Amino acid sequence: MDKPSHLSVVVDLSPSQWHLCGQSSNSHPLPLSAFLSQLLAFLNAHIACNDENTLSVYGALPGKSILLYSSATAVPEEFTGPADPNTYRPFEVLDSTMMNSISDRVEALTDLEQEPPIGLVGALTKSLCYINRMSNASSTSTAAGGVQGPVVLPDPRILVVSVSPDESSSYIPIMNSIFSAQKLKVTIDVCKLYGPESVFLQQAAHLTGGSYIYLERPDALLQYLTMAFLPPPAVRQLLSVPTQDKVDFRAACFCHKNIVDIGFVCSVCLSIFCQPVPVCSTCRTKFPIKTLQRLNASKPAAPAPRTPAPTPPATSLPRSQSIGTPRSSMGNGLVAPSPSRNGTSLPPR
Ligand SMILES: [Zn+2]
Ligand SMILES: [Zn+2]
């Protein structure tokens, strides 16, 4: 760990999910307060590993996302006086800045009947923008000065700490974030603390070379964090960091935002639909009625997942596309063809 590294943490702060996670009826409950103290210990460890390590923390709250801490902002005035001899100043600044912003935001939350979906996508895209800005700042300062400036963000990574289930409407923005992360060479790690497995975050970790870990013992969070997520990706090649043994590659349809086993893909723009459609809602391509009839006839009966849909003769299709390819020119390595998941493309008229 001799090279400095940048870490952006996205913390899921859904009040209802944290309430469920901390319930004593769980086999290993983890209340929010215990979670925050373990997370702060991990963040302190990150900034202590190297003097030049940088850190930003984003909180995903119901309906919004906020910056909780950034090592790039100036130290607040209250910390410029004489230091407490028993505390390390950077730890003190980090801990109190984060705890103050979290308590301010949580107190400001109104008591709504139904909690809006958490701003995970917002927090993720803001982290990517932050990394992009810092990388550009370092490269322009180096070019303008002609002198090698401080090495900034050589190994940027994002750690998502998630407790909420997937929001299927956020499939497309999450996929676009993954493509941006791939382009920026940012690794996305996912620590799933509570709730059902996250299909989208599994794909995010898989496609960016990160680790997705579902904690069987959430109360042992700090151990997972320090063993798996503290070493930067370059060091992890020498360690045995747990990886996913299986990744759920299913995609969400663009029409109803449902996660589908078998999808129908527009052969022009690669939009995914859960059923054959006469007109692609994204690119307005019309499909021949004969194809629709044939695809409808070949659709498998509702819940019969093990029998693959009979694929129409290859000669009648311009090209066949497997499901899981959202609309993007950068979507490389996305498709995982498997016998149980059949994609059928709709040829344009
Ligand atoms: Zn649909
Ligand atoms: Zn289309």
TrEMBL record:
Top-rank taxon, per record: Eukaryota
Pfam families: Tfb4 (PF03850)
Pro residues composition-biased segments: 302-315
InterPro entries given in the database record: TFIIH_Tfb4/GTF2H3, vWFA_dom_sf
Main location as per UniProt: nucleus
Biased composition (Polar residues): 317-331, 339-349
Region ranges (Disordered): 298-349
Keyword Transcription regulation listed: yes
Localization terms from the record: Nucleus
Keywords of the record: DNA damage, DNA repair, Metal-binding, Nucleus, Transcription, Transcription regulation, Zinc, Zinc-finger
Protein role: Component of the general transcription and DNA repair factor IIH (TFIIH) core complex, which is involved in general and transcription-coupled nucleotide excision repair (NER) of damaged DNA and, when complexed to TFIIK, in RNA transcription by RNA polymerase II. In NER, TFIIH acts by opening DNA around the lesion to allow the excision of the damaged oligonucleotide and its replacement by a new DNA fragment. In transcription, TFIIH has an essential role in transcription initiation.
Family label: Belongs to the TFB4 family.
Subunit structure, interactors included: Component of the 7-subunit TFIIH core complex composed of XPB/SSL2, XPD/RAD3, SSL1, TFB1, TFB2, TFB4 and TFB5, which is active in NER. The core complex associates with the 3-subunit CTD-kinase module TFIIK composed of CCL1, KIN28 and TFB3 to form the 10-subunit holoenzyme (holo-TFIIH) active in transcription.
Name used for this protein in its record: General transcription and DNA repair factor IIH subunit TFB4
Originating organism: Somion occarium
